[in-house]
C-alpha cells in the first residue's frame, strides 16, 4: 500500500497565501502609521478641537523611562536667568536654574481668582482652576512672599 503525503503541499500553499496577503496589506499599514503620526502632531497644536471619534481610536505614544526632553543640560536662556546662591568660602557660587516661584501663568491665574473672590480657599481655587490642590500649596506662598496675596485663616485675599 502506497501512502500519499500532502502536508508539504498544504504548508507551501499556506505560506504563499500569507506572503501575498502581507504584500497586499503593507501599503495600508504604512499609510496608517503616517496618519497616526500626523494626528498626534496636530493634537499638540492649538485650533479646532479633535473629533471624539478620531481621538478615541488613537492611543497616545508613551515615552520610555528617563528624564524629559531638554532637562539634561541648561539652555542659555536658563543660565542667564539663574540667581546666585551664597557659596562657601573657596568654592565658586552655585546657580539655581529656573524661574522665580509664582511667576508662571498658573500663578497669575490663581491671583486673578483671588482678586475676583477674596477669601477663597485652596480647595475651592483648585476646583475652579481644574488642577490639584498640592500645586496651589506651593504657588500661593510664593505669591504671598511677593506681596501679591495674603492669607487670613484658610482664605486668600488680594494684597493692597
Q: What order do the helices and strands come in, and which of them pair?
A:
Elements: H1 7-43, H2 52-57, H3 76-80, E1 83-85, E2 94-96, H4 105-116, H5 122-129, H6 133-145, E3 149-152, E4 155-158
Antiparallel strand pairs: 1-2, 3-4
Helix pairs in contact: 4-6
State the low-pLDDT regions, or none: none
Order of strands in the sheet with most strands: 1-2
Give the number of DSSP strands.
4
> What's the gyration radius in Å?
30 Å
**Distance separating the two termini:** 108 Å
CATH superfamily of the domain at 105-158: Winged helix-like DNA-binding domain superfamily/Winged helix DNA-binding domain
Helix and strand pattern: HHHEEHHHEE
Structural shape: elongated
* Quaternary assembly: single chain
Gross CATH architecture of the domain at 105-158: Orthogonal Bundle
Find the structural class using helix and strand composition.
Answer: mainly alpha
Mean of all residue-level pLDDT scores: 77
Determine the fraction of residues in helical runs and give it as a percent range: 40-55%
- Here the CATH topology of the domain at 105-158 equals Arc Repressor Mutant, subunit A
Biggest beta-sheet profile:
2 strands, antiparallel
Provide a count of the helices.
6
Supply the CATH class of the domain at 105-158.
Mainly Alpha
- Percent of residues in beta strands? 5-15%
Amino acid at each position: 500500500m502506497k501512502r500519499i503525503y500532502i502536508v508539504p503541499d498544504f504548508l507551501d500553499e499556506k505560506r504563499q497565501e500569507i506572503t501575498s496577503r502581507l504584500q497586499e496589506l503593507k501599503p495600508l499599514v504604512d499609510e496608517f502609521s503616517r496618519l497616526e503620526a500626523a494626528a498626534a502632531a496636530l493634537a499638540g497644536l492649538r485650533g479646532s478641537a479633535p473629533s471624539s471619534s478620531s481621538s478615541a481610536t488613537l492611543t497616545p505614544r508613551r515615552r520610555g523611562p528617563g528624564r524629559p526632553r531638554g532637562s539634561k543640560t541648561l539652555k542659555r536662556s536658563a543660565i542667564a536667568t539663574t540667581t546666585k546662591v551664597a557659596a562657601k568660602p573657596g568654592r565658586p557660587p552655585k546657580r539655581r536654574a529656573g524661574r522665580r516661584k509664582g511667576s508662571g501663568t498658573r500663578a497669575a491665574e490663581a491671583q486673578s481668582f483671588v482678586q475676583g473672590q477674596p477669601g477663597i480657599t485652596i480647595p475651592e481655587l483648585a476646583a475652579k482652576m481644574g488642577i490639584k490642590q498640592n500645586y496651589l500649596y506651593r504657588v500661593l506662598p510664593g505669591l504671598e512672599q511677593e506681596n501679591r496675596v495674603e492669607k487670613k485663616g484658610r482664605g486668600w485675599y488680594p494684597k493692597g
